[in-house]
Amino acid sequence: MIKILVVDDEPQIARALRINLSAHGYEVTTAPDGAQALRAAAGVVPDLVVLDLGLPDMDGTEVITGLRGWTSVPILVLSGRAASAEKIAALDAGADDYVTKPFDIGELLARVRAATRRGNAAGDSPVTEIGGATVNLAVREVKRDGKEVRLTKTEWQLLEVLLRNPGKLVGQRELLHRVWGPNYDRETNYLRQYMAQLRRKLEADPARPVHLLTEPGMGYRFRP
Questions:
Q1: Which residues carry the record's DNA-binding region feature (predicted)?
Q2: Cα–Cα distance between 106 and 122 in angstroms, integer?
């Protein structure tokens, strides 16, 4: 059964969507805000996310960005924002489609069918094990032995790039650009410093890393 996560803070709309989607054979989970949506996505691993942009705790584009940190699940935005700039911002953030409220349920169901045909997130998971630590990219949480391991914003950015490219060598320049920006081409000492910090926090033996690897003179690699 295809799983759909509906994110909307309006109870009437969330209920209507649950009833209509369930009637057409979909398994529906609902979330009323962005934080619960990200947690639900990590637990359910849906095949499609139907997302309102006007959420009480964060903007919907932030939810899109959070999801795109670990999954390619299709995201269908369902919003009352009709301005072109709003649509462009959502699509640039990683949304796949955009439907404006009020909407026709027949059209919405057609968009849902099209989105789920294009592919789903069945192979995606936000959770990775590194040296006995559990890393959850969906909610930016690391735990070891039930206790939280705190990472800085920069450590998260660096770790996300590596974890999203398992087994792939990510060059020094690419990492510097993606984490610090295009003006940091030569600051390879930043990479050495932050990789050392990540290993101390995540690797079982930081002196002999088995997951966060250095390719001397070239870049870094995450080995699952």
A1: 125-224
A2: 26
Question: Could you tell me which of 125, 137, 18, 130 has the C-alpha nearest to residue 3?
Answer: 18
CATH architecture of 3-117: 3-Layer(aba) Sandwich (3.40)
Q: Where are the domains of the chain?
A: 3-117, 127-222
**Model confidence over 40-87: pLDDT tens digits?**
998 898 999 999 999 999 999 999 999 988 888 999 999 888 888 888
CATH of domain 127-222: 1.10.10.10
Please determine, for residue 30, whether its predicted confidence score (pLDDT) is greater than 90: yes
